[in-house]
Amino acid sequence: MTEALAPEGFVDLHSHVLPGVDDGAENVAEAVTLARGLRDLGFTCLVATPHMRPGLYDPAPQAVVAALHELRAALGAAGPRVLLAGEHFLDDEVWMRIGEGLGRPYPNGRAILVEISTIGPGPARLSEQLFRLRVGGLRPVLAHPERCAAFQDDVARIEELRRAGVATALDLTSLVGQGGRGSRRTAERLLELDLFDVACTDLHAERELAEVERAIKRLRRLVGDDGLDRLLHRSPLRLALELPPPAAERPA
Ligand SMILES: [Fe+2]
Known about the structure:
With 252 residues, the protein is an alpha/beta fold. Helix content is 43%, strand content 15%.
């Protein structure tokens, strides 16, 4: 399955490359530029994660699927491969949709990308909500915790969430200053403590491609080649794309 999904290359679990559905690519031409730009940086598989944030960006499911097909057709066989999930803003409405099976989990159906506001303390019941997702069979993947005030001063809270099965996704560009000094410092601290499961681009626009390129170089310096492969290839594949082997094939 690994080869078919992403031969050798990086896998991006968080991007806004679909045309015309949120604050990412505005049209098909820009979407193609973004996808090919990421391919040129080593990504062979992109998971498009349009926002699900009622009142701000909340595209209809049909529009999202149509945009996916449009982008795939425009990219053709040269790729990169584009798959679909969503970035879920954890308010009451989205929480209800996820419970009703109306969220957009990752392709393996075992994990789901969630975000909270970057300002303020975050939802009062965040830990409980994330735990309930986990128990219900969907592993929460927390988008860019380093950018959230709720975690910047409380790295122990991230440790606690990870112990409860929550996965964490670094926004690569935090490493090169996107999001400010607090995000950068927290990103470096969480990397030092080995508290990130995956690294993602959260790409919205062409101008960010150069930042992603710089960020990958910086990440390589911080974690080495094997760390880079883990954060950008092995872990994202395992977390969001692959299915666990059938029980009979699992080691005893
Ligand atoms: Fe995002």
